[in-house]
Amino acid sequence: MPKDRIIATVMAASFAAVDDSAFLPPLNAVPNPDEHTLNPLLTDEKQKQLNKDKNDLRIDNERYLRSHPEVRDIVTHFMQRVLSEYPEDLHQFANEHFADPDLRDKVRQCKIDNARYAKIFSEIP
C-alpha cells in the first residue's frame, strides 16, 4: 500500500468531526424525483431533530474522549506504528495490533518514550 494511501486511511479514521455534506447528498433529498416521488424523505421537523441528535452525539463523543485520555494514547501508539511500518494490509495490521495481549504495556511504554522525546526536544535551542 502506498505511503500516501496509508496516511489518508489513518487520517480518515481520526476522531475529528467531519462535515459530510460535501461528500453526501442532503439526508432529505429525493433520489431521482419524478411525479410519483415529490415528497421529501424527511420533514423539516424530522431533519432538524436528526441534525440536533447528530450534534448531541458528537458532543457526547467529544466529552467521552476528553474524559478518557487512554483512548488518545492507544490511537497515538497505533498511528506511530502505522506511519513507521507502512503495512501492506492496514485492516489486518489493525486487527493484529488491537488484538495484541501486550497492547496495554506497549501503549504505556510508548507514552513514556513520547514524554522523554518531548523533554529532549524541548531542551534543544
UniProtKB/TrEMBL annotation:
Region (Disordered): 29-48
InterPro entries (alphabetical): RIIAD1
UniProt biased composition (Basic and acidic residues): 33-48
Listed name of the protein: RIIa domain-containing protein
